Amino acid sequence: MAAPQIALTFKHVGIVFSSEDSAPVIALADATCRFAPGRVTAIIGPSGCGKSTLLQIARGFLQPTRGTLEFVDEAGSKTARPAMSTVWQAFNLFPWLTVIENVTFGLELRGVPRKEREGRARQAIAAVDLTGFERKYPRQLSGGMRQRVGIWSTTIILAG
Ligand SMILES: Nc1ncnc2c1ncn2[C@@H]1O[C@H](COP(=O)(O)OP(=O)(O)OP(=O)(O)O)[C@@H](O)[C@H]1O
Ligand SMILES: [Mg+2]
């Protein structure tokens, strides 16, 4: 059976993540776009600009703070969200530890004193452009940010 030909339109979709310990994050400000059926569409933009958030909204895993989504069938009628599947980005972090705790974990195991491991971790975090995100948990980062933390949680800094 052929897959249904359903278009997805985003109309002024935005989402703000609020948390108790930090300022609200506008992950998506005002997205208006159409995904035509039967087409391959790429969403391109810098790390952290909101690509994965947009996909999570498309799937219905996140509710937008503003704007609407419309699924439209071949006859031009609005329809329910169709069956969808997603391949997500992979990463390699302990979800219950913050960025800096993930980076210092291996050093701690090796008995490196707290001050030294924190200093080395801060340098490593700066080297991947994540200064300011030390106390965030992996779930609060974009996929690319997680992968950048993952570079340090598994490699060089732990060996030194
Ligand atoms: N659950 C969350 N709570 C708070 N902030 C979040 C959450 N998820 C994402 N963010 C923030 O929203 C912004 C967009 O994240 P998103 O994952 O959509 O980026 P992306 O474009 O997919 O980036 P990448 O190319 O690195 O995967 C980032 O600034 C990120 O820190
Ligand atoms: Mg992403």
Note the main attributes of this structure:
single chain, 160 residues, alpha+beta, 4-stranded antiparallel β-sheet, 5 helices, 31% helix, 22% strand, elongated, disordered C terminus, binds adenosine-5'-triphosphate, binds magnesium ion
How would the blueprint of this fold be written?
Blueprint: E1 7-19, E2 22-35, H1 51-59, E3 66-72, E4 78-79, H2 99-109, H3 114-127, H4 143-154, H5 156-159
Antiparallel strand pairs: 1-2, 1-3, 3-4
Helix pairs in contact: 2-3, 2-4
Mean pLDDT: 89
Low-confidence stretches: 155-160
Number of discrete domains: 2
Q: Characterize the overall form.
A: elongated
- Work out the helix count: 5
Alpha-beta content class: alpha+beta
Total beta strand runs: 4
Largest sheet: spatial strand order: 2-1-3-4
Q: How far apart, in Å, are the first and last alpha carbons? A: 57 Å
How would you spell out the order of helices and strands? EEHEEHHHH
Fraction of residues in helices? Answer: 25-40%
List each distinct ligand once: adenosine-5'-triphosphate, magnesium ion
**Which sheet architecture does the biggest sheet show?**
4 strands, antiparallel
* β-sheet strand percentage: 15-25%
- Gyration radius, in Å: 20 Å
Give a written overview of the molecule:
There is one protein chain. With 160 residues, the protein is of the alpha+beta class. It has 2 domains: 7-79, no CATH class; 99-159, no CATH class. It is 31% helix and 22% strand. It contains 5 helices and 4 strands; from the N terminus they run ββαββαααα. The chain has helices at residues 51-59, 99-109, 114-127, 143-154, 156-159, and strands at residues 7-19, 22-35, 66-72, 78-79. The chain has a 4-stranded antiparallel β-sheet with strand order 2-1-3-4, covered by helices on one side. A hairpin with a 2-residue loop joins strand 1 and strand 2 (22-35). The radius of gyration is 20 Å and the shape is elongated.
